[in-house]
Design brief:
The complex is a heterodimer. By secondary structure, chain A is mainly beta. Helix content of chain A is 0%, strand content 49%. Chain A contains no helices and eleven strands. Chain A starts with a strand and ends with a strand. In chain B, the strands form three sheets. In chain B, strands 2, 5, 6, 10, 11 and 12 form a six-stranded mixed beta sheet that branches. In chain B, strands 3-9-8-7 form a four-stranded antiparallel beta sheet, with no helix packed on it. Chain B is mainly β. In chain B, a hairpin with a 6-residue loop joins strand 10 and strand 11. Chain B is globular and about 45 Å long. The termini of chain B are far apart. Classes of the chains: A mainly beta, B mainly beta. At the A-B interface, strand 4, strand 5 and strand 10 of A face strand 5, strand 6, strand 10 and strand 11 of B.
């Protein structure tokens, strides 16, 4: 059983560079979520997709952030012109909304360090 | 307004003693409530959830949680804590009209031998 996978697991970049993270959800899951987590804090919602449609986007997601889920499969989260404040763990999760209240399945996260 | 609150930053308990981690939520529609655990540098692992029905739900690793509608709480419990239960625990809520899950700030559990 393949879980949610994220790549890369760690990324170190210089301020001003662009970075892209990839998430491959569990294959039958139709919903995909991105969260950001800083040290010692709870995950903060960024955005989520149902199939290929982006249904909600947090105000936390500035214009420098963009997410896509082409063909409703994997998703990418791109951060342009990175800032030191973008340093965080970026978590991807997926679920299948066939029942009420399905739980999220999380990947191991992609840790971003902006120097 | 915050949708889910975990009032304790840290809970300390001796191994073998009962463990309780508190969570309260804001009243807004029908809440779906969840508990997750996170080990260092790892993603979140699902423990249990309340959707409807019996207020006491049982989950993984001997954990259980009680939904209390009048107190808007969903406290996580374990009758006898293990050192390996030391981790960061998150409560989360999702409402009928939401797609997103809202997470609490987390409670660090430290179980001492």
């Amino acid at each position: 059983d393949t879980g949610v996978s994220q790549d890369p697991r760690h990324k170190i970049t210089k301020r001003g560079q662009n970075v892209t993270f990839r998430c491959d959800p569990i294959s039958e899951h139709n919903r995909l979520y991105w969260y950001r987590q800083t040290l010692g804090q709870g995950p903060e919602f960024l955005t989520y997709f149902q199939n290929e449609a982006q249904l909600e986007k947090s105000r936390l997601l500035s214009d420098r952030f963009s997410a896509e889920r082409p063909k409703g499969s994997f998703s990418t989260l791109e951060i342009q012109r990175t800032e030191q404040g973008d340093s965080a763990m970026y978590l991807c999760a997926s679920s299948y909304d066939r029942d009420r209240g399905p739980e999220l399945f999380f990947g191991e996260g992609s840790r971003l360090t902006v120097l | 307004a915050q949708s889910v609150a975990q009032p304790e930053d840290q809970v300390n308990v001796a191994e073998g003693n009962p463990l309780t981690v508190k969570c309260t939520y804001s009243v807004s529609g029908n809440p779906y409530l969840f508990w997750y655990v996170q080990y260092p540098n790892r993603g979140l692992q699902f423990l249990l959830k309340y959707i409807t029905g019996d207020n006491l739900v049982k989950g993984s690793y001997g954990f259980e949680a009680e939904f209390n509608k009048s107190q808007t709480s969903f406290h996580l419990k374990k009758p006898s804590a293990l050192v390996s239960d030391s981790a960061l625990y998150f409560c989360a809520v999702r409402y009928d009209s939401w797609g997103k899950f809202q997470f609490g700030a987390g409670t660090q559990v430290v179980v001492t031998p």
